[in-house]
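User: what does the whole thing look like in 3D?
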Amino acid sequence: MKKLYTERKWKEHSRKRQENELDRRRHRNKYLGGRSTSPVGSRQYNRAGLSPYQKFHPVSAPHNFSLVNNPEEVIEFFERMRATFKKKRSVFIDLSETTTITADAITVLVSLLKNDRFTRGKDYKGNVPNDEFLRDKFKESGFYNYVLSSTRPKNPDYGSIRARNTIKVDGATAQSLITFATKKLYGEYRKQGGVYKVLLESMNNTRDHASGRGEHRERWWAAVHYDENAEKAGFTFIDNGVGIFKSRSLNILQESLRKLNINRNSDLLKKMLRGEIESSTGIPYRGRGLPSIYECLQRGDIQNLIIITNNVYANIQTNRVRILENEFSGTFLYWEISK
Amino acid sequence: MTTAIMLILSVATEFSRTPGPRERKDGDFSGEQFLQEYLVPKYEEAKRENAILFIDLDNTEGYGTSFLEESFGGLQRLYPTEDVLKSLDFKSDDERYVIDDIKKYIKEANN
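Assistant: Here's the predicted 3D structure for the full assembly of 450 residues, as C-alpha coordinates:
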Protein backbone atom coordinates (compact mmCIF):
# COMPACT_ATOMS: atom_id res chain seq x y z
CA MET A 1 0.00 0.00 0.00
CA LYS A 2 2.73 2.39 0.97
CA LYS A 3 4.50 1.71 -2.27
CA LEU A 4 1.42 2.85 -4.23
CA TYR A 5 1.33 6.35 -2.67
CA THR A 6 5.00 6.96 -3.19
CA GLU A 7 4.95 6.07 -6.85
CA ARG A 8 5.30 8.93 -9.31
CA LYS A 9 2.11 7.97 -11.11
CA TRP A 10 0.05 8.34 -7.90
CA LYS A 11 1.61 11.63 -6.99
CA GLU A 12 0.85 13.02 -10.42
CA HIS A 13 -2.75 11.86 -10.14
CA SER A 14 -3.09 13.43 -6.70
CA ARG A 15 -1.61 16.75 -7.85
CA LYS A 16 -4.00 17.00 -10.80
CA ARG A 17 -6.95 16.17 -8.57
CA GLN A 18 -6.01 18.98 -6.16
CA GLU A 19 -5.63 21.49 -8.98
CA ASN A 20 -9.02 20.56 -10.37
CA GLU A 21 -10.59 20.93 -6.92
CA LEU A 22 -9.02 24.36 -6.51
CA ASP A 23 -10.30 25.47 -9.92
CA ARG A 24 -13.79 24.29 -9.08
CA ARG A 25 -13.77 26.29 -5.81
CA ARG A 26 -12.51 29.41 -7.50
CA HIS A 27 -15.16 29.13 -10.16
CA ARG A 28 -17.83 28.56 -7.51
CA ASN A 29 -16.75 31.58 -5.45
CA LYS A 30 -16.68 33.76 -8.55
CA TYR A 31 -20.18 32.64 -9.46
CA LEU A 32 -21.56 33.24 -5.96
CA GLY A 33 -19.95 36.71 -5.78
CA GLY A 34 -19.57 36.50 -2.01
CA ARG A 35 -23.15 35.36 -1.46
CA SER A 36 -23.70 32.74 1.14
CA THR A 37 -25.68 29.64 0.38
CA SER A 38 -27.10 29.78 3.88
CA PRO A 39 -30.89 30.13 3.64
CA VAL A 40 -31.68 32.49 6.51
CA GLY A 41 -30.63 36.17 6.74
CA SER A 42 -27.52 35.54 4.66
CA ARG A 43 -27.38 38.90 2.89
CA GLN A 44 -27.61 40.79 6.10
CA TYR A 45 -24.91 38.74 7.68
CA ASN A 46 -22.60 38.98 4.71
CA ARG A 47 -23.02 42.71 4.36
CA ALA A 48 -22.18 43.21 8.02
CA GLY A 49 -19.39 40.68 7.80
CA LEU A 50 -21.13 38.44 10.31
CA SER A 51 -21.54 34.70 10.27
CA PRO A 52 -25.03 33.26 10.61
CA TYR A 53 -23.57 30.84 13.09
CA GLN A 54 -22.07 33.44 15.39
CA LYS A 55 -23.56 33.49 18.87
CA PHE A 56 -24.81 36.81 20.20
CA HIS A 57 -25.51 37.23 23.87
CA PRO A 58 -28.63 39.30 24.52
CA VAL A 59 -28.45 42.37 26.73
CA SER A 60 -31.83 43.99 27.30
CA ALA A 61 -32.25 47.72 27.61
CA PRO A 62 -34.39 49.05 30.49
CA HIS A 63 -38.00 49.98 29.71
CA ASN A 64 -37.18 53.62 30.35
CA PHE A 65 -34.17 54.06 28.12
CA SER A 66 -33.27 57.60 29.13
CA LEU A 67 -29.99 58.51 30.75
CA VAL A 68 -31.35 61.85 31.88
CA ASN A 69 -34.46 60.43 33.58
CA ASN A 70 -33.34 56.91 34.51
CA PRO A 71 -29.55 57.06 34.96
CA GLU A 72 -29.09 54.08 37.28
CA GLU A 73 -30.74 51.48 35.06
CA VAL A 74 -29.29 52.85 31.83
CA ILE A 75 -25.76 52.94 33.22
CA GLU A 76 -26.25 49.42 34.55
CA PHE A 77 -27.35 48.34 31.04
CA PHE A 78 -24.21 49.85 29.50
CA GLU A 79 -22.10 48.09 32.11
CA ARG A 80 -23.72 44.73 31.32
CA MET A 81 -22.82 45.30 27.69
CA ARG A 82 -19.29 46.20 28.67
CA ALA A 83 -18.96 43.07 30.80
CA THR A 84 -20.23 40.89 27.95
CA PHE A 85 -17.76 42.38 25.49
CA LYS A 86 -15.03 41.99 28.06
CA LYS A 87 -15.74 38.26 28.12
CA LYS A 88 -15.02 38.30 24.39
CA ARG A 89 -18.66 37.72 23.52
CA SER A 90 -20.71 39.32 20.79
CA VAL A 91 -23.72 41.26 21.97
CA PHE A 92 -27.34 41.39 20.88
CA ILE A 93 -28.79 44.72 22.01
CA ASP A 94 -32.44 44.17 22.81
CA LEU A 95 -34.48 47.36 22.60
CA SER A 96 -37.76 45.61 21.88
CA GLU A 97 -39.34 46.14 25.32
CA THR A 98 -38.46 49.81 25.74
CA THR A 99 -41.43 52.05 26.51
CA THR A 100 -39.46 55.30 26.56
CA ILE A 101 -36.41 56.12 24.51
CA THR A 102 -34.62 59.46 24.48
CA ALA A 103 -31.98 60.94 22.23
CA ASP A 104 -29.45 61.30 25.02
CA ALA A 105 -29.42 57.53 25.61
CA ILE A 106 -29.19 56.85 21.88
CA THR A 107 -26.23 59.20 21.57
CA VAL A 108 -24.38 57.51 24.43
CA LEU A 109 -25.16 54.10 22.93
CA VAL A 110 -23.68 55.15 19.58
CA SER A 111 -20.60 56.59 21.28
CA LEU A 112 -20.00 53.31 23.10
CA LEU A 113 -20.58 51.06 20.10
CA LYS A 114 -18.10 53.09 18.06
CA ASN A 115 -15.49 52.80 20.79
CA ASP A 116 -13.17 49.82 20.29
CA ARG A 117 -12.12 49.96 23.93
CA PHE A 118 -15.74 49.30 24.86
CA THR A 119 -16.59 46.61 22.29
CA ARG A 120 -13.13 45.03 22.41
CA GLY A 121 -13.45 44.49 18.68
CA LYS A 122 -16.39 42.11 19.15
CA ASP A 123 -19.47 42.17 16.95
CA TYR A 124 -22.87 43.43 17.94
CA LYS A 125 -26.33 43.65 16.51
CA GLY A 126 -29.77 44.39 17.84
CA ASN A 127 -33.40 45.13 17.30
CA VAL A 128 -35.63 48.17 17.50
CA PRO A 129 -38.48 48.96 19.89
CA ASN A 130 -41.70 47.06 19.30
CA ASP A 131 -43.70 50.23 19.81
CA GLU A 132 -44.23 51.82 16.40
CA PHE A 133 -43.86 55.42 17.60
CA LEU A 134 -40.64 54.62 19.42
CA ARG A 135 -39.39 52.65 16.47
CA ASP A 136 -39.84 55.64 14.16
CA LYS A 137 -38.26 57.95 16.72
CA PHE A 138 -35.29 55.64 17.01
CA LYS A 139 -34.85 55.41 13.26
CA GLU A 140 -35.03 59.17 12.85
CA SER A 141 -32.51 59.93 15.59
CA GLY A 142 -29.47 59.69 13.37
CA PHE A 143 -28.39 56.38 14.93
CA TYR A 144 -28.11 54.66 11.58
CA ASN A 145 -25.67 57.20 10.24
CA TYR A 146 -23.17 55.45 12.45
CA VAL A 147 -24.42 51.89 12.82
CA LEU A 148 -24.90 49.49 9.90
CA SER A 149 -28.42 48.28 9.34
CA SER A 150 -30.56 46.74 6.68
CA THR A 151 -33.35 49.25 7.42
CA ARG A 152 -31.80 52.64 7.28
CA PRO A 153 -33.80 55.83 6.88
CA LYS A 154 -32.37 58.20 4.33
CA ASN A 155 -32.65 61.50 6.18
CA PRO A 156 -33.13 61.64 9.93
CA ASP A 157 -35.55 64.43 10.53
CA TYR A 158 -35.69 64.97 14.27
CA GLY A 159 -32.22 64.20 15.42
CA SER A 160 -28.75 64.97 14.39
CA ILE A 161 -25.99 63.02 16.02
CA ARG A 162 -22.61 64.47 15.13
CA ALA A 163 -19.38 62.75 15.86
CA ARG A 164 -15.96 63.96 15.06
CA ASN A 165 -13.08 61.74 14.18
CA THR A 166 -10.83 64.45 15.37
CA ILE A 167 -10.12 65.05 19.01
CA LYS A 168 -10.03 68.77 18.39
CA VAL A 169 -12.30 71.58 19.39
CA ASP A 170 -14.58 72.15 16.43
CA GLY A 171 -16.68 75.30 16.11
CA ALA A 172 -18.15 74.18 12.79
CA THR A 173 -19.82 71.17 14.40
CA ALA A 174 -21.28 73.38 17.10
CA GLN A 175 -22.56 75.72 14.40
CA SER A 176 -24.28 72.91 12.51
CA LEU A 177 -26.04 71.62 15.61
CA ILE A 178 -27.26 75.11 16.51
CA THR A 179 -28.45 75.70 12.96
CA PHE A 180 -30.43 72.46 13.05
CA ALA A 181 -32.01 73.29 16.39
CA THR A 182 -32.96 76.89 15.63
CA LYS A 183 -34.38 76.12 12.20
CA LYS A 184 -36.64 73.54 13.87
CA LEU A 185 -37.60 75.89 16.70
CA TYR A 186 -37.95 79.17 14.89
CA GLY A 187 -38.06 78.27 11.22
CA GLU A 188 -34.79 80.11 10.71
CA TYR A 189 -31.26 80.17 12.03
CA ARG A 190 -30.78 82.22 15.22
CA LYS A 191 -27.57 82.82 17.08
CA GLN A 192 -27.23 80.90 20.33
CA GLY A 193 -24.04 82.22 21.86
CA GLY A 194 -24.67 80.39 25.12
CA VAL A 195 -25.11 77.02 23.45
CA TYR A 196 -22.01 77.63 21.33
CA LYS A 197 -20.05 78.45 24.46
CA VAL A 198 -21.24 75.32 26.30
CA LEU A 199 -20.32 73.10 23.35
CA LEU A 200 -16.87 74.63 22.97
CA GLU A 201 -16.13 74.48 26.69
CA SER A 202 -17.19 70.81 26.72
CA MET A 203 -14.92 70.01 23.77
CA ASN A 204 -12.07 71.85 25.49
CA ASN A 205 -12.59 69.90 28.69
CA THR A 206 -12.58 66.60 26.83
CA ARG A 207 -9.37 67.52 25.09
CA ASP A 208 -7.64 68.68 28.24
CA HIS A 209 -8.86 66.21 30.84
CA ALA A 210 -10.79 63.17 29.54
CA SER A 211 -7.83 60.92 28.84
CA GLY A 212 -6.68 60.74 32.45
CA ARG A 213 -3.19 59.32 32.65
CA GLY A 214 -3.26 57.86 29.15
CA GLU A 215 -1.43 59.23 26.17
CA HIS A 216 -4.37 58.91 23.77
CA ARG A 217 -6.91 61.68 23.30
CA GLU A 218 -10.58 60.98 23.81
CA ARG A 219 -13.12 61.42 21.11
CA TRP A 220 -16.27 63.40 21.84
CA TRP A 221 -19.82 63.14 20.52
CA ALA A 222 -22.40 65.87 20.31
CA ALA A 223 -26.02 65.62 19.29
CA VAL A 224 -29.21 67.62 19.14
CA HIS A 225 -32.77 66.39 19.11
CA TYR A 226 -35.89 68.39 18.41
CA ASP A 227 -39.03 67.61 20.41
CA GLU A 228 -41.92 68.88 18.34
CA ASN A 229 -44.54 68.44 21.07
CA ALA A 230 -42.58 70.24 23.75
CA GLU A 231 -41.14 72.75 21.26
CA LYS A 232 -37.66 72.36 22.60
CA ALA A 233 -34.29 71.20 21.39
CA GLY A 234 -32.15 69.00 23.62
CA PHE A 235 -28.37 68.92 23.27
CA THR A 236 -26.23 66.00 24.38
CA PHE A 237 -22.48 66.02 24.78
CA ILE A 238 -20.55 62.89 25.75
CA ASP A 239 -17.02 61.68 26.03
CA ASN A 240 -16.13 58.18 27.23
CA GLY A 241 -13.04 59.22 29.09
CA VAL A 242 -12.21 58.89 32.75
CA GLY A 243 -14.77 61.44 33.98
CA ILE A 244 -14.24 64.75 35.74
CA PHE A 245 -13.18 63.26 39.06
CA LYS A 246 -10.67 60.78 37.72
CA SER A 247 -8.73 63.11 35.49
CA ARG A 248 -5.06 63.11 36.41
CA SER A 249 -4.88 66.82 37.05
CA LEU A 250 -7.89 66.79 39.35
CA ASN A 251 -6.56 63.89 41.42
CA ILE A 252 -3.68 66.06 42.50
CA LEU A 253 -6.09 68.78 43.49
CA GLN A 254 -8.41 66.45 45.35
CA GLU A 255 -5.71 65.52 47.82
CA SER A 256 -5.53 69.14 48.90
CA LEU A 257 -9.28 69.48 48.95
CA ARG A 258 -9.67 66.53 51.30
CA LYS A 259 -7.74 68.50 53.83
CA LEU A 260 -10.40 71.18 53.51
CA ASN A 261 -13.03 68.53 54.22
CA ILE A 262 -14.31 68.51 50.65
CA ASN A 263 -14.59 64.76 50.30
CA ARG A 264 -17.58 64.11 48.15
CA ASN A 265 -17.52 64.50 44.41
CA SER A 266 -20.95 66.10 44.54
CA ASP A 267 -19.64 68.93 46.72
CA LEU A 268 -16.60 69.28 44.52
CA LEU A 269 -18.71 69.61 41.39
CA LYS A 270 -20.80 72.39 42.94
CA LYS A 271 -17.68 74.33 43.84
CA MET A 272 -16.19 73.80 40.40
CA LEU A 273 -19.32 75.17 38.76
CA ARG A 274 -19.27 78.25 40.95
CA GLY A 275 -15.62 78.86 40.10
CA GLU A 276 -14.50 78.31 43.68
CA ILE A 277 -11.85 75.77 42.68
CA GLU A 278 -8.67 76.98 41.05
CA SER A 279 -7.56 75.45 37.81
CA SER A 280 -5.73 72.19 38.27
CA THR A 281 -3.06 73.57 35.91
CA GLY A 282 -2.12 76.02 38.63
CA ILE A 283 -2.42 78.86 36.13
CA PRO A 284 -4.79 81.48 37.53
CA TYR A 285 -6.25 82.62 34.22
CA ARG A 286 -7.31 79.11 33.27
CA GLY A 287 -10.04 76.78 34.50
CA ARG A 288 -13.02 78.91 33.54
CA GLY A 289 -14.77 76.23 31.51
CA LEU A 290 -17.26 74.78 33.99
CA PRO A 291 -18.02 78.14 35.63
CA SER A 292 -18.82 79.64 32.23
CA ILE A 293 -21.23 76.77 31.51
CA TYR A 294 -22.93 77.50 34.82
CA GLU A 295 -23.13 81.19 33.93
CA CYS A 296 -24.90 80.32 30.66
CA LEU A 297 -27.53 78.52 32.73
CA GLN A 298 -27.86 81.44 35.13
CA ARG A 299 -28.26 83.89 32.25
CA GLY A 300 -31.04 81.76 30.78
CA ASP A 301 -29.09 80.95 27.61
CA ILE A 302 -29.74 77.26 28.31
CA GLN A 303 -32.16 75.32 30.51
CA ASN A 304 -32.32 72.03 32.33
CA LEU A 305 -28.57 71.44 32.50
CA ILE A 306 -27.68 67.93 33.67
CA ILE A 307 -24.17 66.63 34.24
CA ILE A 308 -23.36 62.96 34.79
CA THR A 309 -19.80 61.98 35.51
CA ASN A 310 -18.22 59.18 37.55
CA ASN A 311 -20.58 58.63 40.49
CA VAL A 312 -22.36 61.97 40.30
CA TYR A 313 -25.68 62.87 38.73
CA ALA A 314 -26.32 66.60 38.95
CA ASN A 315 -29.37 68.51 37.84
CA ILE A 316 -27.81 71.94 37.94
CA GLN A 317 -31.10 73.73 37.21
CA THR A 318 -32.80 72.34 40.31
CA ASN A 319 -29.56 72.15 42.28
CA ARG A 320 -30.14 68.45 42.97
CA VAL A 321 -27.07 66.29 43.09
CA ARG A 322 -27.02 62.61 43.91
CA ILE A 323 -24.46 59.85 44.13
CA LEU A 324 -24.94 57.02 41.65
CA GLU A 325 -24.67 53.36 42.58
CA ASN A 326 -23.31 52.54 39.13
CA GLU A 327 -20.46 54.74 38.00
CA PHE A 328 -20.60 56.39 34.62
CA SER A 329 -17.36 56.16 32.66
CA GLY A 330 -16.92 59.52 31.05
CA THR A 331 -18.59 62.91 31.13
CA PHE A 332 -22.12 63.56 29.94
CA LEU A 333 -23.85 66.91 29.59
CA TYR A 334 -27.42 67.58 28.55
CA TRP A 335 -29.23 70.89 28.18
CA GLU A 336 -32.15 72.41 26.32
CA ILE A 337 -33.29 75.52 24.55
CA SER A 338 -36.89 76.37 23.87
CA LYS A 339 -39.07 79.07 22.35
CA MET B 1 -11.56 119.85 18.12
CA THR B 2 -9.72 116.56 18.26
CA THR B 3 -10.69 113.57 16.17
CA ALA B 4 -9.91 110.08 17.35
CA ILE B 5 -8.65 107.76 14.70
CA MET B 6 -10.25 104.35 14.84
CA LEU B 7 -9.05 101.13 13.36
CA ILE B 8 -11.67 98.43 13.06
CA LEU B 9 -11.18 94.71 13.48
CA SER B 10 -14.23 92.53 12.84
CA VAL B 11 -13.82 89.02 14.20
CA ALA B 12 -16.59 87.55 12.04
CA THR B 13 -15.58 89.03 8.69
CA GLU B 14 -11.80 89.15 9.05
CA PHE B 15 -11.11 86.07 11.16
CA SER B 16 -13.91 83.53 11.55
CA ARG B 17 -17.59 83.14 12.34
CA THR B 18 -16.66 80.14 14.49
CA PRO B 19 -13.94 81.18 16.93
CA GLY B 20 -12.44 78.06 18.41
CA PRO B 21 -10.20 76.90 21.25
CA ARG B 22 -7.35 78.51 23.12
CA GLU B 23 -4.35 77.20 21.25
CA ARG B 24 -3.60 76.31 17.66
CA LYS B 25 -2.93 72.68 18.52
CA ASP B 26 -6.43 72.33 19.91
CA GLY B 27 -8.30 73.23 16.74
CA ASP B 28 -9.00 75.76 14.04
CA PHE B 29 -9.50 79.51 14.57
CA SER B 30 -7.85 79.54 17.96
CA GLY B 31 -7.34 82.46 20.27
CA GLU B 32 -3.63 82.01 19.80
CA GLN B 33 -3.98 82.41 16.03
CA PHE B 34 -6.26 85.42 16.41
CA LEU B 35 -3.83 87.08 18.81
CA GLN B 36 -0.72 86.51 16.71
CA GLU B 37 -2.11 87.09 13.22
CA TYR B 38 -4.79 89.74 13.78
CA LEU B 39 -4.87 91.34 17.18
CA VAL B 40 -1.19 92.11 17.71
CA PRO B 41 -0.61 93.59 14.23
CA LYS B 42 -3.71 95.78 14.52
CA TYR B 43 -2.80 96.82 18.06
CA GLU B 44 0.69 97.81 16.94
CA GLU B 45 -0.77 99.78 14.03
CA ALA B 46 -3.18 101.53 16.38
CA LYS B 47 -0.32 102.54 18.65
CA ARG B 48 1.73 103.88 15.73
CA GLU B 49 -1.19 105.99 14.51
CA ASN B 50 -2.28 106.98 17.99
CA ALA B 51 -5.62 105.37 17.26
CA ILE B 52 -8.23 103.30 19.05
CA LEU B 53 -8.58 99.69 17.98
CA PHE B 54 -12.31 99.03 17.69
CA ILE B 55 -13.14 95.34 17.86
CA ASP B 56 -16.47 94.18 16.48
CA LEU B 57 -17.42 90.96 18.25
CA ASP B 58 -20.83 90.53 16.60
CA ASN B 59 -22.01 88.07 13.95
CA THR B 60 -19.98 85.12 15.15
CA GLU B 61 -21.54 81.96 16.57
CA GLY B 62 -20.18 82.89 19.97
CA TYR B 63 -17.03 82.67 22.02
CA GLY B 64 -15.45 80.15 24.32
CA THR B 65 -13.83 81.61 27.42
CA SER B 66 -10.47 80.14 26.44
CA PHE B 67 -10.52 81.93 23.10
CA LEU B 68 -11.25 85.29 24.67
CA GLU B 69 -8.74 84.84 27.46
CA GLU B 70 -5.96 83.73 25.14
CA SER B 71 -6.65 86.59 22.73
CA PHE B 72 -7.16 89.53 25.04
CA GLY B 73 -5.55 88.29 28.21
CA GLY B 74 -2.72 87.17 25.98
CA LEU B 75 -2.46 90.65 24.50
CA GLN B 76 -2.05 92.14 27.96
CA ARG B 77 0.58 89.55 28.84
CA LEU B 78 2.53 90.49 25.70
CA TYR B 79 2.49 94.13 26.76
CA PRO B 80 2.67 93.84 30.55
CA THR B 81 3.73 97.42 31.16
CA GLU B 82 0.98 98.91 29.03
CA ASP B 83 -2.69 99.34 29.78
CA VAL B 84 -4.01 97.76 26.60
CA LEU B 85 -7.59 98.58 27.52
CA LYS B 86 -6.93 102.24 26.87
CA SER B 87 -6.30 101.48 23.22
CA LEU B 88 -9.26 99.16 22.75
CA ASP B 89 -12.98 99.61 22.28
CA PHE B 90 -15.58 96.93 21.70
CA LYS B 91 -18.94 96.28 20.12
CA SER B 92 -21.00 93.25 21.09
CA ASP B 93 -24.72 93.83 20.55
CA ASP B 94 -25.38 90.07 20.31
CA GLU B 95 -23.95 89.25 23.75
CA ARG B 96 -23.18 92.31 25.83
CA TYR B 97 -21.63 90.33 28.69
CA VAL B 98 -18.72 89.31 26.42
CA ILE B 99 -17.24 92.81 26.74
CA ASP B 100 -17.28 92.58 30.54
CA ASP B 101 -15.65 89.17 30.35
CA ILE B 102 -12.89 90.49 28.08
CA LYS B 103 -12.17 93.40 30.39
CA LYS B 104 -11.95 90.99 33.31
CA TYR B 105 -9.54 88.74 31.44
CA ILE B 106 -7.34 91.71 30.57
CA LYS B 107 -7.26 92.93 34.16
CA GLU B 108 -6.47 89.46 35.53
CA ALA B 109 -3.99 88.56 32.79
CA ASN B 110 -0.88 89.17 34.82
CA ASN B 111 -2.09 87.63 38.09
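In plain terms: The interface with chain B takes residues 166, 168-172, 174-175, 178, 191-197, 200-201, 203-204, 207, 284-286, 288-289, 292, 299 of chain A (CB under 8 Å). The beta strands of chain A are 56-60, 64-65, 90-94, 100-101, 124-126, 159-163, 220-227, 232-239, 303-315, 320-338.
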